């Protein structure tokens, strides 16, 4: 990828097939089972590939969550756009201008599903949303901060990763913070997406 060229964000909506309809739905109420999957794409390919070769980071990640939303909140509420923006925000997708089309597309598909005669008897409308967009941490300063972590090979005896509570075995690779605490590489990278403090002692990265 050259210069400042960025991939266009993608949002696909669809009705989930073979969805099990729950029995315990109050009479007169209707809901959307909104299943959202987001693929975050890391750019800066030179840095990304170098980290991947070191076993320190994945070049992309996926998040998937399901939301149960009252149908009225998407079909009749004037704040429907805010409801969808909140869902996207919980998934880590910003609601800036480049992503506003996602809000419109999700609401449009919700209306189409509710109007479809084939869905007339469904109490829960199963809707899927698949999104691909640039990771919010796609900036060189953040990548270089991650690159600055010391890569270590565990020797002597295993140590525990305080983030996932799993063991980092002897001979395995880890990432050491400046405060000397060691974690799995992918665990500390995920942690640093939300905080620049060590999860063990709260020391900040310089």
Automatic annotation (TrEMBL):
Keywords: Metal-binding, Zinc, Zinc-finger. Residues 161-201 form the RING-type domain. It comes from Eucalyptus globulus (Tasmanian blue gum). Gene3D superfamilies: Zinc/RING finger domain, C3HC4 (zinc finger) (3.30.40.10). SMART domains: RING (SM00184). GO terms for molecular function: ubiquitin protein ligase activity; zinc ion binding. It comes from the Eukaryota. PANTHER family: E3 UBIQUITIN-PROTEIN LIGASE PRAJA, F6A14.12 PROTEIN-RELATED. This is RING-type E3 ubiquitin transferase. Its EC number is 2.3.2.27. It catalyses: S-ubiquitinyl-[E2 ubiquitin-conjugating enzyme]-L-cysteine + [acceptor protein]-L-lysine = [E2 ubiquitin-conjugating enzyme]-L-cysteine + N(6)-ubiquitinyl-[acceptor protein]-L-lysine.
